[in-house]
Design a protein that fits this description.
α2 crosses α3, α4 (142-153) packs across α5 (171-178) and α5 crosses α6. By secondary structure, this protein is of the alpha+beta class. It has 7 helices and 11 strands.
């Protein structure tokens, strides 16, 4: 495994580590990985594919908490004593997921500094993202929230590409992430396309120029 100082987390190295649980599960698009209320007894790591995390309120309203991609952990609440899943995890595309038992994950974090570094970095990044999302919801218009969500999906700032194609995501899912209606998302997506900020020719391509919507006037 590579530490945060030498590169990204190597999932195959995790799989090959001595004593590591070798449970690998393949999921197809729209398969449910775990449901809200299920026992919380293992951590998951995305080797390939993508995962949507969502929560359903008592009134039946669904909110998308996060869209995760390869190289990210989820389901780590069990390490803090969470007895049941607080939300539902669904594959957004064909995915390969590592399942690591709670006790084994704790031992690995204690015994493998590189894994511990990567996991702490993941938790800190997730916490920062949650704080930014809260500020975004309280401070920005739905148009700016949608633009920011698209930039995050395209991982803006992580490479030098002028445009990045991301897996096509439904407008309903975007609406649930942004906290608005599907019709409003449709309106803004058409606007972004007219302005050359996004393109639907082959999948969904998000261009860096979309950041002009997010930047202060």
């Amino acid at each position: 495994m590579k530490s945060k100082h030498t590169g990204t987390f190597n999932g195959q190295a995790l799989l090959d580590s001595t004593g590591t649980a070798r449970t690998i599960v393949e999921y197809r698009r729209a398969d449910v990985i775990f449901s809200q209320g299920d026992p919380c007894d293992h951590v998951l790591y995305i080797q390939e594919g993508g995962v949507k995390l969502s929560v359903v309120s008592h009134a039946g309203r669904e909110a998308v908490v996060a869209l995760l991609s390869a190289g990210e952990f989820f389901g780590e609440g069990c390490l803090a004593g969470q007895p049941a899943r607080s939300g539902t995890a669904t594959a957004t595309m064909d995915s390969t997921i590592f399942r690591i038992g709670q006790g084994r994950m704790v031992r690995m974090l204690h015994n493998q500094p590189a894994l511990s570094d990567r996991f702490i970095a993941h938790l800190l990044a997730r916490n920062i993202r949650i704080e930014q999302d809260l500020v975004d919801q309280l401070s920005n218009s739905s148009e700016k929230r949608l633009a920011r969500t698209l930039l995050l999906l395209a991982r803006y700032g992580r490479d030098d590409n002028r445009g990045r194609t991301v897996p096509l995501i439904s407008q309903q899912t975007l609406a649930e992430m942004v906290g608005t209606t599907r019709s409003r998302v449709n309106f803004f997506m058409r606007k972004f396309q007219r302005m050359g900020f996004v393109d639907y020719t082959n999948g969904l391509t998000v261009y860096d120029s979309l950041r002009t919507i997010v930047l202060p006037n």
